[in-house]
Amino acid sequence: MGRTRAHARRIDEIGTPRFQPPKRPGIFLLNFSTMKIIHRIILSAVLVTSLLSIPVSHAQKNIAPSQKFLIFAGTYTNKTQSKGIYSLDFDAATGKLTLKGLAAETPDPSWVIIHPSGKFLYAANETGKASTVSAFGLDPKSGKLTPLNQMSPQGEDPCYLSFDKTGKYLFAANYSSGTVTAFPILSDGKLGKPTATPKNQGTLGPNKERQEAPHAHWIEPSADNRSVYVADLALDRILIYKFDAATGALAQGTPVDQFSATLAPGTGPRHAVFAPNGKFMYVLSEMSSSVTVFANDPQNTFRSVQEISALPPGYKARNDAAEIALHPSGNFLYTANRGEDTIAVFSVDHQSGKLTHLENVPTQGKEPRNFVIDPTGKYLLAENENSDTIVEFKIDPATGKLTPTGDVVQVPAPVCLTFLAK
After folding, report:
1. How confident is the model at residue 260 (pLDDT cuts 50, 70, 90)?
2. How many domains does the chain have?
3. 44: part of which helix (H) or strand (E)?
4. Could you give the CA distance from residue 195 to residue 164 in angstroms, rounded to a whole number?
């Protein structure tokens, strides 16, 4: 089992309509010239006043995006040295990664996610029948987390969390029980009682050992917030649930479910990402260590256009694919291999959506369950669960290829990272 994000900004330019002076000459033309001078003086004064009223830190942020981030690391605590969630400082300008310390003590927080407000963090406590989802208050200065409350996910082993597009609901994928859960997020950041906990349904895959029952592994909302996508490892499908943002209800079935993406039997889908333009979905399959590319047709029907291995030709040893992410540019795609212990790098064809394999780069550790690309797109951080390390790689902006920077931080059993801009 196992358990990631880049944001694009659009700048809208507003043109100023030209003033048409009166056709008659004379005093009106003189007044117009005078008015233009006065108008410029007033605008200059307003501009200076406005700049003086802006705090220096805000002005700097307007000049350039943030290069400094607070990172929270989710870990496994069972039979490890970890105590819970750890915080780190990261400077994207220099690539410097520094461990701050323990942010909160909590059992097996295998997936952590920060609310869009930046005020709260939520963790999936993957502890079998005792599993919970925890809410924390977040102090961005100290990097400390304050427990708010815990709720049962009404299932076992939550392994992935996400928010709906309004930030009013938290979704959880429960691996062992094959269910998904929707929680309302209250005004104080606490989690309310679940509004829905449906169980995944469908035909099981051929692997009797690993596909013996539904296993929800990933959940994300659609762009319009009317549906929720769920990867089920045992059903070899990306299911689609109807979502009601007014009530928090989730419902599987026709007509939405008939548009779900179906993978080859026995592939075992784990996580997925969407192209920035929404035209393509990339599904990483844990069991086959492959990426399946789906074209997203106008009515949200998914058709497979490519399946490509994340392993080099001839590789026969044990491997479990773990994580997938697109570069913020959309030009490159990355996946993690546990067994080969590498990050696979692909280039992306924007027209067809198809991938070309470029390289597999060793993560310098064992079992890279998760990795993340920093929000600036300059670095990739790979977490080696069984080596207790986070290893940093520089991303070549032209080729997408990875080069280790030599920066390695010791964190016990790291399996998830999430960023908060300072």
Report:
1. confident
2. 1
3. helix 27-53
4. 13
Which one, of 312, 236, 304, lies nearest residue 270 by Cα? 236
Q: Is residue 166 part of a domain?
A: no
- Domain encompassing residue 41: 30-59
Percentage of the chain beyond pLDDT 70 is: 82
Q: Are 304 and 297 in contact (CB under 8 A)?
A: no
Quick check: is 158 in a domain? no
Show the CA angle centred on residue 256, arms to residues 254 and 259, nearest 5°.
Answer: 105
Output the pLDDT for position 254.
56
pLDDT at 252: 78
Token pair for residue 158? 């939550």
Tokens of 54: 């802006």
Identify the pLDDT of residue 14: 30
Taking alpha carbons only, the member of 173, 60, 178, 197 closest to residue 124 is: 173
Report the alpha-carbon distance of residue 327 to residue 185 in Å, rounded. Answer: 30
In whole angstroms, what is the distance from residue 241 CA to residue 227 CA? 5
Whether residue 16 is predicted with pLDDT greater than 50 in this model: the reply is no
